[in-house]
Amino acid sequence: MSNYFIGIMTGTSADSLDGCIVNFEKNVDLIETAQIELGSEYKDKYEECIRLGFKEVNESADLMEIEKTLNKKTIDLVEALIDKSRISRKSISLIALSGQTIFHTYDKSYQIGNSQQIADMTGINVCSNFRNFDIQQGGMGAPLIPTFHKYLYAENNKNKLIFNIGGISNGTYLKGDQIEIASDVGPGNCLIDMFIKKHFDLPFDFDGKIASDGALNEMLINKLLMDTKNMSYPRADDKNDYYKLIDENFLEMPPKDIIRTLTEFTAIKIKDFYDYCECPSEIIFHGGGTKNSFLMKAINKKLDSDVRTTDSEIDSKFVEATAFAYLAYLKRGEIYFSKS
C-alpha cells in the first residue's frame, strides 16, 4: 500500500485552501504543495453564518452556497496537486479533508465539505470528520495538531512548546517524548481580521503595518483580559467565544488603536500559555500569524526564550495540511470510499 496522502486544510481564517502531498514511509516527506484562495465573498458569508450560529448546511442558503464553493475548490486543489506532482492517482491512499468548521463544542463539532462527493469526483477515498472522531475517543475535538507536533518534534529530555496562530491560537507542550498538555489558547487572528475587514476592507493586517501605527488602549486590553481570565486549560475554543467580547467600546476607538490592542491581546494570550508550561527550552511557531511581523515582535518581547518557525522543516503555511494528512495516515477519522 502506498504511503502518499493528500492533506486539505481550511482553517477558521477561511482565506484559502492549503493542500499538500506527503509520504510517511520514513520521515515526513513533503512532496508537493498548492493553495487556492477562497475569496472575500466566501469568507464574508462564512463569518456571517458563524455569528448567526448555524450548525447544519440546510439551515442556511448561504451555508449551502459556500459548501458548494468549498467542494469545487477542494476538487480543483486535489487535481492541481496530482498534476504538479505527477504522482499516479492510484498511488494516493487517502485525501485528508479538514472541512470548514462552522460551530464547535466539547461534545459535537460541525464542519462543511461533502466528503462523499469529493471522494466520488476525485476517485480517491477521503478521511474526514476528524474532530468528532476525536470527541468519540474522549478528546475535545480541538486542537488536533498536537499528535503531529509530537511526531515531528518530540525528543527525550527536551521540553518544547509549539504554537499555531490561525484564526484561533493553540499550543502543544511537549515534555520529553510526551504531550504534557495541548489547548486552544486565544483568539489568534480572528478578531484582528474582523476589524481589518470592517474598517479597512482588507483580508488581514499585512505585516502588522496598521497595528504598528496604532496606540494600545489600556482600558480595552484590561477589559478583554478580565473577560477571559476564567478560560482554563485545556480547552477547545469556538470563534464565537471571542466574537462575543465585542461591545460598544470597540465602536468608540480609532480603528488603528483597535487593531493595535487586539494584536496585543493575541500576544498576551500566547504568553499566558507559555507561563503555564514548565520552562520550555524551545518555542516553535507556525500558521498565518507568523507572517505578521509586528505580532511576532510583540510575542518575542514577552517570551524569555528563543523563538523560531517551522519553516526549516515544513513551510509554516502547510503544517496543518500536513498534520491532517498524518491523521489520515493514522486513520483517526471517518473513511468515505469512492464509488467511481
Brief sketch in words of this structure:
With 340 residues, this protein is an alpha/beta fold. Helices cover 40% and strands 22% of the residues.
Topology:
Layout (H helix, E strand, L loop, with lengths): L3 E6 L6 E8 L5 E9 L2 H13 L8 H25 L6 E6 L2 E5 L4 E4 L2 H8 L3 E3 L1 H7 L9 H8 L5 E7 L3 E7 L2 E9 L3 H11 L8 H4 L5 H10 L12 H4 L4 H4 L3 H22 L5 E5 L6 H10 L4 E3 L9 H11 L4 E3 L4
Parallel strand pairs: 1-4, 4-7, 8-11, 11-12
Antiparallel strand pairs: 1-2, 2-3, 5-6, 7-13, 8-9, 9-10
Tell me what the structure shows.
By secondary structure, this protein is an alpha/beta fold. It has two domains: 4-141 and 319-336, ATPase, nucleotide binding domain (Nucleotidyltransferase, domain 5); 146-305, 2-Layer Sandwich (Nucleotidyltransferase, domain 5), CATH 3.30.420. It has helices spanning 40-52, 61-85, 115-122, 130-136, 146-153, 190-200, 209-212, 218-227, 240-243, 248-251, 255-276, 293-302, 319-329, and strands spanning 4-9, 16-23, 29-37, 92-97, 100-104, 109-112, 126-128, 159-165, 169-175, 178-186, 282-286, 307-309, 334-336. The chain has a six-stranded mixed β-sheet, sandwiched between helices. The chain has a five-stranded mixed β-sheet with strand order 10-9-8-11-12. A two-stranded antiparallel ribbon has the order 5-6. Helix 6 (190-200) packs antiparallel against helix 11. The radius of gyration is 19 Å and the shape is globular. It starts with a strand and ends with a strand. The mean pLDDT is 94.
